[in-house]
Amino acid sequence: MLTETISPDLFRAALSRWASGVTVVTTTDADGRSHGFTASAFSSVSLDPALVLVCLDNRANCFDAFDQSEGFVIHLLAQGQEGLAGKFASKGADKFAGTDVRLSERGLPLLPGALARLECRTERRIPGGDHLILIGEVHHADQGDGEPLVYYQRGFHELIPAGASLA
Ligand SMILES: Cc1cc2nc3c(=O)[nH]c(=O)nc-3n(C[C@H](O)[C@H](O)[C@H](O)COP(=O)(O)O)c2cc1C
């Protein structure tokens, strides 16, 4: 039986070599309060039905809101939204202050400026170690124009097409 485990530092260092997009995930609690967090642990899961997933740290302040909510919105961030990503990654911040938040028909917070928004019904929650895997069925999506915000080696980057000159 394999009992060997990797050191957390080595695991983090290896994962930092994975380039991803950046999302902000929002929901509303039973009292109508908005919650949200920045997430790079996002993936499509299934085309039919339309399923996606996002992983939420069990220690997040917004954990209970997402654990109990019937739905959430995943915002795929655009270049230039680094500030929004930083705000929604800051504990204790008034994350929605100064942002033009609208509520969807189902009462979920919609942020402007994203490359795409996926409004989801919570289909399943699966414990995944120190994170909770939220699987959502996408029932509404919209998209805008622009380039994606990229996260790589603990920093934000812009997308450059392969072969393009850096000069
Ligand atoms: C680029 C980036 C990606 C992140 N990805 C995740 C993620 O996938 N899941 C997660 O739980 N936290 C992630 N975080 C950290 C959370 O956004 C942060 O801890 C947030 O403040 C948690 O919400 P809370 O303020 O309600 O505790 C990420 C942070 C950054 C800057």
UniProtKB/TrEMBL annotation:
GO terms for molecular function: oxidoreductase activity. Gene3D superfamilies: Electron Transport, Fmn-binding Protein, Chain A. Coiled coil: none annotated. The keyword Signal does not apply. Keywords: Oxidoreductase. The keyword Cytoplasm does not apply. Residues 15-158 form the Flavin reductase like domain. InterPro entries: Flavin_Rdtase-like_dom, NADH-dep_flavin_reductase, Split_barrel_FMN-bd. Pfam families: Flavin_Reduct. Its EC number is 1.-.-.-. SUPFAM superfamilies: FMN-binding split barrel. PANTHER family: FLAVIN REDUCTASE, FMN REDUCTASE (NADH) RUTF. This is Flavin reductase family protein.
